[in-house]
Amino acid sequence: MSDSVLSLRERLSLPESPRQPRRERREAALRSRVDLTVFLNPDQRHELRAIEGFGWRLAFVRRPLFQEVVPVVESADSRQRYVMDVHGHLRTHTVVPVR
Question: Which of 41, 81, 82, 88 is least crowded, fewest Cβ atoms below 10 Å from its Cβ?
Fold first, then answer.
């Protein structure tokens, strides 16, 4: 069977292709990631900078139609998530469902 493959390759004179390393498909997604802080107002940005010093980060921003944006921050270990209100205060009593 391998003889027939080799002879076919020889007949078609196909060059041997060196094995290319796999391209990481997630690179494009990481490069095209939007800076979510553009959706925050100045008070929210100020609070975000303050809590980033403690390891918290902006997880995602929900943008419901015709309503205020809802920024969600999470702890460094991703165990706690809180909603940030319009004034930059964290609402600890809000449950954030994540799928």
Answer: 41
